[in-house]
Amino acid sequence: MATKKPPLRHLLDTIITIKLEPAGEIFHIHKGLLCHASPVFRAMMQHNWKEKQDGCIVLKDEDPEVFRRFIYWLYNGTVLDFDETIQPISSRELALCYFLADRRDIPALQNHLIDLILDTPCTLSYFLSEVQPLIWANTPEQSPLRKLLVDMMAFAADIPRIFEEENEMDCFDKCFVVDVLIRTHRTPKFTGWKNFHERRCDYHVHNANLPACSINRRQQPVKQSREINQHFPGESQKP
Question: What pTM was estimated for this model as a whole?
Answer without folding.
Answer: 0.78
